[in-house]
Amino acid sequence: MTPVQTPTAAALPTGDAAGPGPGRGGAAEERSGPGARRRARRENLAGYLFMSPWIAGFALLTAGPMIASLYFAFTDYNLFDAPRWIGLKNFTDMFADPRWRHSVDVTLWYVVVGTPLKLAAALAVALLLNQKRRGQGFYRAAFYAPSLIGASVSIAVVWRAIFSDDAIVDRAQRSLLGMDVGGWIGDPDWIVYSLIALTMWQFGAPMVIFLAGLKQVPRELYEAAEVDGAGPWRRFWNITLPMISPVLFFNVLLETIHSFQIFGSAYILGGQAGGTCGPADATLVYTCYLYVQGFENSRMGFASAMAWMLLLAVGLVTAVLFWSQKRWVHYEEAAR
């Protein structure tokens, strides 16, 4: 008798040769047929419905006002009469305005001085909190709290009281340093430093980001550096800063943008000190002068032009920071 031969695996018919088989064609049609397309449309529609509040808010509260302000920047508009097209006159008047140039100087001074000091304070406290100690959670919350309440009107009012004439700061500098300069709030030469001090006090947000970056630095690097005899400063300069440089770049970028947009604290500190924005326009930051032109002088077209110049300036600074990161920011992927 001839033995029955079992077909080998190679001899078995493949799916293509044997036809779709039971259920195969149906599955393919389900994945690419009209039913699948209908399901995909329903899922996309559900997604857009969930996103619709954000889309409506963006269109009505962000994109719409931006487009309107771009139009108003080329018009003479006083909030009451219909806007009248005047072309580039708002921009030429802006560059010729000495108060506008002064507001640019005050803002640049605040950004160049206040931002590095705030980041230095945030990094210093983050380095202290990165060490293992009791009550770390309490200290982190305590140092972060000013960032939650520092931008409020009440804190700015309290800050104004602290730095006013014959207040606690004035008494301390007289008794400890022998300086009798009076209150910082009423002095055009000192009020901007009270504004910078308020900014430094709100270092909690960048501190938390720095602390997260410090947690990612491998301890083996510090141990190897200690074995090689590297001191604390050398370890900080050669290990800590390069390893947290992406976090440092993020904080520099974010805080620089925030510094250009400062308004509330400058307006409140300077509003009760002999002028709308400080004595002798000492706290006349860019946004404060924008507010004066738009809502006090009813020159909304001029204010819109100022707003777009601020947007271009922030965009330029952001582009420069992104260009410069190639020189001092170190990413792990690039190292590999």
UniProtKB/TrEMBL annotation:
Membrane topology: Multi-pass membrane protein
Gene3D superfamilies: MetI-like
Domain (ABC transmembrane type-1): residue spans on this chain: 104-321
Stored CDD domains: TM_PBP2
Bias (Low complexity) ranges: 1-17
Keywords: Cell membrane, Membrane, Transmembrane, Transmembrane helix, Transport
Keyword NAD: no
GO CC list: plasma membrane
Subcellular localization: Cell membrane
One BP annotation, GO: transmembrane transport
InterPro entries membership: ABC_transporter_permease (IPR051393), MetI-like (IPR000515), MetI-like_sf (IPR035906)
Presence of keyword Membrane: yes
One Pfam match: BPD_transp_1
Transmembrane portions of the chain: 45-74, 108-129, 141-162, 190-214, 300-323
Region (Disordered): 1-38
PANTHER family: ABC TRANSPORTER PERMEASE PROTEIN, ABC TRANSPORTER PERMEASE PROTEIN YESP-RELATED
Similarity comment: Belongs to the binding-protein-dependent transport system permease family.
Protein name (database record): ABC transporter permease
